[in-house]
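Q: What residues go here?
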């Protein structure tokens, strides 16, 4: 019984190793988490809300992604959304 478990473990390890080599030879590579940065000004623009817990404050925002892409946006409250009180 122990020998069968050992053989299965060796077979699984060998199969994983072979599949890794085959995929790398095909040009695949392991997943690498990309580094990124994102920030916005002004900071802490969330206000308390009764329905969802928080909401975005009105105003103009500047969003910078990866220290290169700069977006300027404006947020104002939509009159279509009326919370049930």
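A:
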């Amino acid at each position: 019984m122990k020998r069968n478990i050992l053989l299965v473990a060796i077979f699984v390890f060998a199969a994983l190793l072979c599949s890794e080599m085959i995929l790398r030879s095909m040009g695949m590579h392991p997943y690498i988490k990309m580094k990124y940065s994102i920030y916005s000004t002004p900071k802490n623009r969330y206000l308390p809300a009764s329905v969802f817990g928080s909401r975005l404050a009105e105003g103009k925002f500047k969003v910078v992604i990866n220290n290169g892409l700069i977006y300027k946006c404006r947020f104002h409250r939509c009159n279509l959304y009326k919370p049930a009180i």
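A: Context that may help when evaluating the design: Helices lie at 2-25. The two ends are 67 Å apart (CA to CA).
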